[in-house]
Description:
Elements: H1 29-38, E1 43-47, H2 56-66, E2 72-75, H3 88-92, E3 96-100, E4 111-114, H4 123-129, E5 141-146, H5 154-163, E6 167-169, E7 197-201, H6 206-214, E8 219-224, E9 229-232, H7 236-249, E10 255-260, H8 268-277, E11 281-286, H9 291-294, E12 301-304, H10 308-314, E13 322-323, H11 325-331
Parallel strand pairs: 1-2, 1-3, 3-4, 5-6, 5-7, 7-8, 10-11, 10-12, 12-13
Antiparallel strand pairs: 8-9
Helix pairs in contact: 7-11
Amino acid sequence: MSNESAYSEGDLRNTGMALKHDREWDYELERIVDAIEERDAETVGLQFPEGLKRRGPKVADDLRELTDEGTTIMLSGQPCYGACDLDTYLMKRTDVFVHFGHSPMKNTDKVIYVPLFSNVEIRPIMEESLDTLEPPEETPGVGLVTTAQHMNRFDEMREFLEGEGYEVHTRRGDDRLTHEGQVLGCNYASADVDADQILYVGGGKFHPLGLAMEHPEKTVVIADPVNNVVTVADTEKFMKQRYGAVHRAMDAEKWGVIFCTKIGQGRWETAQEIIADNDDAYLITMDEVTPDRLQNFDMDAFVNTGCPRITTDDGPRFHKPMLTPGEYEIAVGNEPLDSLEFDTFHGTW
């Protein structure tokens, strides 16, 4: 497998040109207006993920023009990182609640999901990925995965690879995933296919990094169509960080066990099991898990049963070691050190 350069030619990430592909989204305003009219809605709630909150006021303006003057439109200011992260307070207090940027994690009439598919062309980065993928005559099989934003191009991705001679393996994961070939930041079940290499088409490092840890026997090639870069997922630095956190927590006596109250992130049974087995563990409930909110708790270490990304993305920012449930089992001696693996989330709510 070719890996002569760390980055592809034309990598835009550090050039100030990363926003070259200024994407236009389909906010599905007609569908939202139809729902407002069908329900005689007087209040409408709009929730956007962090990267798209700046688009919220314009969408609200457009909806005001398309609805009756008496319709009240509210924007959620709560942090939002996925379909598991619904603003339930606003949802309960509006006649129509719209969640933008993610595909449904669970079918419900209470929420209108608008996935906001990307309009970025994927063929150029697919062509470039051929220089990094093993050629089909040597390794014919390739697994294909992507994120919700690029699912509208999934058939195009598959057809391209098949046209290059690959046997493309895809599957839908578990109930937490809406589409065949879709991965989340906490769930990579769609990559559990009979192929030694996986092509991930999408932005960011977290998804392919988790994928590579979940399936260490596979090579994960990252084709980022927004920043125009092809790389191979490397878990070494991440694993060193996680092993370091586990080692720092091995002498901990007082543990804070965090149960996240967000609708799609709570693992109550996991939290309860830890509390039941450790007299020096204390259950802490919270919606948004941040370093400042834990600063005043006199704990030696924390174990997070909520979103895995809290631990893996923000772990170094916490004042005491922050572990996943699996890492906790290693730190207290219930499991061997070499059992460390990526924390994944299965099922809905």
